[in-house]
């Protein structure tokens, strides 16, 4: 997803695209992988003196709710990234740096067969580990 799409979604859902919200979206548009609320706060403090953690977290949850960001849980902490808008795929997520790699296979065909009498509404498949760059460092 890009900045224009994100701003369009915000406005369609009835929310204002304030300067702070745009700056947060800009951060995610250029971030490679998942980021914590602390990462976002550190960045936003350089642009908006006195911005609160509550403001950051409220907006991160708003972006997740309206489908701009997607989340994952790493080591008990919520991480965020700009939502993918490409074809169906899953992710490898580096536990050290948060970068992701697309995984183009999906185990749902096999899972759906074993759950033949169940209605599946959605799914999420993530693989966690350490990327080659972090293994070297």
From TrEMBL:
Keywords: Cytoplasm, DNA-binding, Repressor, Transcription, Transcription regulation, Zinc. CDD domains: Fur_like. It is found in: Cytoplasm. Gene3D superfamilies: 3.30.1490.190, Winged helix-like DNA-binding domain superfamily/Winged helix DNA-binding domain. Belongs to the Fur family. This is Fur family transcriptional regulator.
